[in-house]
Design brief:
This protein is an alpha+beta fold and 466 residues long. The chain folds into 3 domains: 152 residues, PAS domain (Beta-Lactamase); 88 residues; 146 residues, 2-Layer Sandwich (Heat Shock Protein 90), CATH 3.30.565.10. Helices cover 56% and strands 16% of the residues. The strands form 3 sheets. Strands 2-1-5-4-3 form a 5-stranded antiparallel β-sheet. Helix 7 runs antiparallel to helix 8, helix 8 runs parallel beside helix 11 and helix 10 runs antiparallel to helix 11.
Length: 466
């Protein structure tokens, strides 16, 4: 999977819902495990403390009945039975001096806490404390208790077995959490995709309609009530749009009939008068001007109707593979005589072959309109350059000229119908060429962008999907 596709998936609502579902589940699982682990650790610690208190009680009883002098004999036996590395016994005087002790080889570095010792010596009850064992990866639990003789008994117990037990719990639970997280992620993805399937159907239908399939509707299936309401509203909207478009089609037909017919009749009468040759020179000139103006009006009406039909989706553009290199090259040959007459250089940069799926006639209109504008508004001695670029997902046709340029105020409005900048009013035209080119580009799923600076020229970029 390419990086681009991965980024597109990351921006989808399905991915975000799955991410938050998995995130909440992971946090909840970790929180539950943390609570479980803390409870188990406290239970283990409590059990250890109870055992040490019982050990202290038994030791005090033994020394009470047999005397402090029996400490080494009795405690050595006790330490050896449990393991000298697991437990030690130490008899201390109130000042902390060692009176007797079991084998302390495994407990080197474990000292006496003077503060705890003072508290116990002053008559306090047994004190428990956890300490680190130098050179060992585990800790030890220490208990201090006071004998009737005033001496202090210190007992240390290794927490290695407790640590191993808690580690075993981690080793068992963590893989389980990972498996559950993986399953929850897959389940979340499935549930999110299923919940949003209706929205995908709406999107797919909208795309089909934008490409001309006006009869398409979204099928109402057994989904959530919210998606069903969306589908119903979308289908009602499509029905309403279809009615409006039908009305628009009727209106455009009426306009075409009501305006074209009288203008054509006027043109015919003027042309008949001109061809008769019976009138004077002034009358002939008036007839010729009438014919020309009628042609301009007919062209303007036809162009506006064509724009309306394309934007409304009434006119369906049949598409084939179009060779853009050949198409732009032919347009260059069409405008080369005009450019040579005004000493304007025409430059064309393109690969050997570049094709796109589109309507040949409509794409010709885009290229001719933009190239005509570039040549028209470029002064003598200027340059018009056209680039054809093949990107990964789109084809771009770039028209760059060295003309007068367009102001920042006019630039956002140049694609509006009948809009003409102040600098272009002295040039022939109706202000419909860029609007038609933009409508055709949108009908192909693309768009046109404009950049310009006064006194430096303009750049129009046509982007068409592959």
């Amino acid at each position: 999977m390419s990086l681009r596709k991965a980024l597109e998936i990351r921006r989808t609502l399905v991915f975000r819902l799955t991410f938050w579902y998995a995130f909440v589940f992971i946090v909840s699982s970790l929180a539950a495990f943390a609570v479980f682990y803390i409870v188990i650790a406290n239970v283990v610690r409590e059990r250890t403390d109870q055992e040490m208190l019982r050990e202290l009680s038994e030791t005090v009883s033994i020394l009470k009945s047999k005397g402090d002098d029996s400490f080494r004999t009795e405690m050595d036996f006790e330490a050896e039975s449990e393991g000298v590395g697991n437990i030690f016994f130490r008899l201390l005087d109130p000042a902390g001096g060692e009176v007797a002790a079991t084998d302390m080889t495994a407990w080197k570095g474990v000292g006496v806490d003077s503060d705890v010792l003072a508290r116990v010596a002053a008559g306090g009850g047994p004190v428990l404390k956890t300490v680190a064992v130098p050179g060992k990866p585990y800790e030890a639990r220490i208990i201090y208790g006071r004998l009737e003789s005033g001496r202090i008994i210190e007992i240390g117990c290794s927490l290695e077995h407790d640590a191993d037990f808690l580690g075993a719990i981690q080793d068992m639970v963590m893989p389980g959490i990972l498996v559950v997280v993986a399953l929850s992620t897959l389940t979340g993805w499935f549930m999110a995709a299923r919940a949003l399937a209706g929205i995908k159907d709406v999107t797919r239908t909208a795309v089909d309609i934008s490409e001309g399939s006006l009869e398409k509707r979204v099928k109402v299936q057994a989904r959530g009530e919210e998606v069903k309401q969306l589908v119903d509203a979308f289908n009602r909207m499509l029905d309403r749009i279809h009615e409006l478009m039908k009305g628009l089609r009727e209106v455009t037909d009426d306009i075409a009939h009501d305006l074209r017919t009288p203008i054509t009749r006027i043109r015919g009468l003027a042309e008949a008068e001109l061809n008769a040759g019976k009138s004077g020179e002034e009358s002939n000139k008036l007839a010729a001007d009438t014919v020309e103006e009628c042609d301009n009006l007919l062209q303007m009406i036809n162009t506006m109707l064509e724009i309306s039909e394309i934007e409304a989706g009434i006119r369906v553009l049949s598409k084939t593979d179009v060779d853009l290199v050949q198409l732009v090259g032919e347009a260059f040959e069409l405008f080369r005589p005009i450019a040579d007459e005004r000493e304007i250089r025409l430059v064309f940069h393109a690969p050997d072959h570049l094709s796109v799926r589109g309507n040949m006639h409509s794409l010709q209109r885009i290229v001719v309109n933009l190239l005509e504008n570039a040549v028209k508004y470029t002064p003598e001695g200027g340059c018009v350059t056209v680039f054809l670029r093949d990107d990964e997902d789109a084809v771009r046709i770039i028209f760059r000229d060295t003309g007068a340029g367009i102001s920042e105020e006019d630039l956002p409005l140049v694609f509006n119908r009948l809009y003409r900048c102040d600098s272009s009013r002295s040039q022939p035209g109706f202000g419909l060429g860029l609007c038609l080119a933009s409508a055709v580009a949108c009908a192909h799923g693309g768009h046109i962008a404009a950049e310009s600076k006064l006194g430096e020229g303009s750049t129009f970029t046509v982007t068409l999907p592959r």
